[in-house]
Write a structure and sequence with these properties.
This protein has 239 residues and is of the alpha/beta class. The protein contains 10 helices and 8 strands.
């Protein structure tokens, strides 16, 4: 068992996308050490809020609070400050919020007491989007270039890493170095249902390319036996 702030060598963070703290805590116990951490996102936080977060935090696992903050710098900084008492291991903002916003988020996170500062991560291009979606937005750039530009800004703003798809790992790792965290959703074991994701890869492929954290939700949580599904992924990764 890892403690609540240490990211273990198991790179899998299980996305507990449910509105129910009891269900999330139960799922956390079911998957146990077959995952390295847990992610709570918008569905959870909108319904259960800080109190729900504290319920899951009692499980003692590293928690990624995925709220994808996206607003003007002052508002995002305030939101980060409001979240610090929860002591999440990881927090995220949208890189599309711009450099000043990311810097404000970083500065707010730096106000955390010693040892409680969350990793500050920028979401680049959602894994549910592809080239056609960018074009529809009037954005005539390839996803790889778009993600690279956003990640460069995140690094320049002093954030700790980005959320990207597995398809961008190699380029970002080469360009931004070994310490820049690459958090990768859109992970699907071979043959699994892709659902609404578009830029996907298998857990082992993404890990081998250099992902630090693999965010995996439905392939575990929607499985008939979530514990077995998480264990199969961990075994595949040699964890
Ligand atoms: O920031 C995220 O975690 C995130 C970014 C992104 O680009 N794509 C993405 O899927 N996510 C989250 O990762 C999880 C993926 O869940 P599954 O598609 O069920 O594995 C969800 O909770 C998403 O909110």
């Amino acid at each position: 068992m890892t403690d609540a702030r240490t990211i273990s060598r198991n790179p899998v963070f299980c996305a507990l996308d449910t509105p129910s703290p009891d269900k999330a805590a139960r799922m956390a116990r079911q998957v146990g050490d077959a995952v390295g951490g847990l992610k709570l996102g918008l569905e959870f936080f909108m319904a259960a809020g800080p109190e729900g977060f504290r319920t899951v935090a009692k499980e003692g696992r590293p928690l990624f609070l995925d709220l994808k903050l996206h607003d003007i710098p002052n508002t995002v900084a305030g939101a980060v400050r409001s979240l610090l008492p929860l002591k999440p291991a990881i927090l995220n903002v949208h890189a599309q919020g711009g450099m000043a916003m990311m810097q404000a988020a970083r500065d707010a996170a730096n106000e955390a007491p010693e040892g409680e500062r969350p990793l500050m991560i920028a979401v680049t291009m959602l894994t549910s989007l592809d080239q056609a979606d960018l074009e529809r937005q009037g954005n005539r750039v390839a996803p790889a270039d778009y993600v690279r530009r956003l990640a460069e800004q995140a690094a320049e703003a002093g954030l700790d890493g980005v959320v990207c798809s597995a398809h961008e790992i190699e380029t970002l790792r080469m360009e931004l170095g070994p310490d820049f965290k690459l958090i990768v959703p859109g992970i699907r074991p071979a043959g699994a249902d892709i659902g609404d994701q578009k830029r996907v890869m298998t857990p082992a492929e993404a890990r081998d390319l250099g992902a630090d954290i693999l965010v995996i939700g439905r392939p575990i949580t929607a499985a008939d036996d979530p514990a077995a599904a998480a264990r199969a992924i961990a075994d595949d990764l040699g964890c």
